[in-house]
Write a structure and sequence with these properties.
The protein is an alpha/beta fold. It has 16 helices and 13 strands. The chain has two domains: 168 residues, Glycogen Phosphorylase B (Rossmann fold); 152 residues, Rossmann fold. It has a seven-stranded parallel beta sheet with strand order 3-2-1-4-5-6-7, with helices on both faces. Strands 10-9-8-11-12-13 form a six-stranded parallel beta sheet, sandwiched between helices. Helix 1 crosses helix 2, helix 3 crosses helix 4 and helix 9 packs across helix 14. It is globular and about 60 Å long.
């Protein structure tokens, strides 16, 4: 079979990499496309995962997003028409949805973020099968008109199978000195250019408040920010100077999480990864999502809606320590999860290909 993966974000690189490699090993013709978005294509290079870059990220403004999407669809139309896939796989990529629908190709999508309202509206009407984690109610998708009978659920949180990946031997080493009596607090800012966040997040106010609070409380310790965008990194550099260590996505996040004492995220993939690795984790609840809420109920992380209170939350978690018991509990939970690849393999078999057996990772 010919199978096309459209892979847009760092999370999708990590999620789809073992699936694409497994299918290719089983003799399928696999094409993986992405876009010029430093976080994603830099991680693909670190992982030595080959992707074809088509188009670019549209930035923060609506006009830029629209123009980038239209240009990308035009380029993909020519490429995918020639490739002629038997199956398209994406994480609800709007361009993959429109191109596959327009050309008549079967499209199966994974998703764990039904709160991304715009993305759901742009993709769900045009896909044939949806795979989601079991704790997300089908109603989260059927409210967009999607047929619940075409939803297949797997018993895993997406970050679970992802953290079983090996750290890349060819990647960059640890960019800061961990240990030595100083705490390391890693902050992953909110995705300020996302369509679904509020004005406080888009303006950078929330990120600055979180960083300022942690710096004030932990002066003399390592406060590290893994920034999302070049302008975000520059802005934080102007505001906080040498008080904070600013990184961009030149690292596999797993290496950083293995070497920090606490993590502050905003409900995204690294937040779930940190929690499932037993790292004391605070999630800024900018946009409530099912995964963070579930992990919070299970005691793997804590959520906070007020950026100014994040540092205090971190303090309480650090006081309780990164215990071996917490890490073992997280490891047992991750070990109990199934591999989402099994759902894709079943579909490949249904469509006439061979895909059975696990993808590893």
């Amino acid at each position: 079979m010919r199978i096309w993966f459209d892979i847009l974000t760092p999370k999708e690189i990590l999620f789809f990499e073992p699936m694409a490699k497994e299918l290719k090993a089983r003799g399928h013709d696999v094409l993986c496309t992405s876009r010029r978005y430093k976080e994603a294509h830099a991680l693909a290079a670190i992982r030595r995962f080959p992707v074809v870059l088509v188009g670019r990220h549209g930035g923060a403004e609506k006009l830029g997003k629209l123009e980038a999407s239209l240009q990308r669809m035009k380029r993909l139309t020519a490429m995918i028409s020639e490739f002629s896939p038997d199956l398209t796989v994406s994480f609800c990529s709007p361009e993959a949805a429109r191109v596959s629908y327009g050309l008549g190709f079967y499209h199966a999508a994974f998703n764990d973020a039904p709160h991304h309202d715009v993305g759901m509206r742009l993709t769900l009407p045009m896909i044939q099968r949806l795979f989601t984690p079991w704790m997300i109610p089908k109603s989260a998708y059927t409210r967009y008109g999607f047929d619940g009978k075409r939803i297949s659920r797997y018993r895993a949180i997406d970050a679970g199978p992802m953290i079983r990946r090996a750290s890349p031997s060819g990647g960059a080493g640890l960019p800061y000195a961990a240990g030595g009596g100083a705490l390391t607090i890693l902050i992953r800012p909110v995705e300020e250019q996302a369509a679904y966040v509020g004005e406080k997040e888009k303006s950078g106010e929330a990120t600055s408040s979180i960083v300022r609070g942690v710096l004030d409380r932990y002066a003399g310790h390592n406060v590290v920010v893994l920034s999302r965008y070049a302008d975000q990194k520059a802005r934080l550099g102007r505001e906080f100077g040498s008080r904070v260590r600013l990184l961009d996505m030149a690292y596999d996040g797993k290496i950083l999480l293995e070497n920090c004492d606490a993590f502050v995220g905003s409900g995204g993939t690294m937040t779930a990864e940190a929690a499932l690795m037993g790292v004391p984790t605070v999630s800024y609840d900018a946009v409530p999502n099912v995964t963070s809420e579930y992990l919070g109920r299970r005691g793997f992380l804590v959520t906070e809606k007020d950026p100014a209170r994040i540092a205090a939350r971190v303090g309480r978690l650090l006081a309780s320590g990164r215990s071996a018991a917490k890490k073992r509990r997280a490891e047992r939970f991750v070990a109990s999860m199934e591999d989402p690849y099994s759902r894709l393999a079943e579909l490949v078999s249904e469509l006439g290909g061979s895909g059975a057996a696990g993808s590893g990772g």
